[in-house]
From TrEMBL:
This is Feline leukemia virus subgroup C receptor-protein 2. It is a multi-pass membrane protein. The chain crosses the membrane at residues 42-62, 82-102, 133-154. It is found in: Cell membrane.
C-alpha cells in the first residue's frame, strides 16, 4: 500500500522511458545526425518561392484577358477556361506519382523537373502565338500544370531539409506564400 501512495504522490519513474526514447535508431545507420544549417538556406527558399510564383501566374494568365484570347484564337470562353482548369485536373492523376518521386529521388531532382517543365511550358506557349495554334497553347499550359504538381509538394520537404526545427514552419509558410 505504501508503494502505491509513493507513486501517486511523486508520479511514475520516467527515467527509463526517456532513455528508451533517446536511443531510437535511425534505421540501420544509428542515431540521426543533427540537421546542419547553412546561411544560404534563406536564398534557397526565396529561389523556390520565385519559381513557384512564375508557375502560379501562368495558371490564370489567360483567364484575366479571356476576351482577347477568344478573339485571337477564335475560340469560345469554355476553351479559354480550360487553360486554367487544366491545372486542377492535372493535380488529380499526378499527385501520387510526384509524391513518390519526391520521396524516392529527392528534393533536388523534383525541383529540377518542376523547373524544366515550367520552362518548357512557357516556351511552348511563346511558340503558340499564332491564331491557328490554340492546341499548342493548351499543350504548353498542360506542361506548366504538371510542373505545378511538382512545385506544390516541395515546401514542406524543403523546409525540413534546409531548416532547423525552430524555423521549419516559417520556411514552409514562405515557400507556400510564393505560390500565392
Amino acid at each position: 500500500m505504501k508503494d502505491d501512495q509513493d507513486t501517486k504522490e511523486t508520479g511514475p519513474d520516467l527515467s527509463k522511458v526517456v532513455k528508451i526514447q533517446a536511443d531510437i535508431p535511425n534505421g540501420e545507420c544509428g542515431s540521426a545526425p543533427p540537421t546542419r544549417i547553412y546561411k544560404r538556406r534563406w536564398v534557397i527558399v526565396l529561389l523556390f518561392s520565385t519559381y513557384s510564383l512564375s508557375n502560379a501566374y501562368q495558371w490564370i494568365q489567360y483567364g484575366i484577358i479571356s476576351n482577347i484570347i477568344m478573339k485571337f484564337y477564335n475560340v469560345d470562353g469554355f476553351a479559354v477556361d480550360w487553360l486554367s482548369m487544366i491545372y486542377m485536373l492535372a493535380y488529380i492523376p499526378f499527385i501520387f506519382p510526384v509524391t513518390w518521386l519526391l520521396e524516392k529521388l529527392g528534393l533536388r531532382f523534383t525541383a529540377l523537373v518542376a523547373n524544366a517543365l515550367n520552362c518548357a511550358g512557357t516556351w511552348i506557349k511563346v511558340a503558340s502565338a499564332r491564331p491557328d495554334l490554340f492546341w499548342v497553347t493548351l499543350l504548353g499550359q498542360s506542361a506548366s500544370a504538371v510542373a505545378q504538381v511538382f512545385i506544390l509538394g516541395i515546401p514542406s520537404s524543403l523546409a525540413s531539409v534546409w531548416f532547423g526545427a525552430e524555423e521549419v514552419s516559417t520556411a514552409c509558410s514562405i515557400g507556400v506564400f510564393g505560390n500565392q
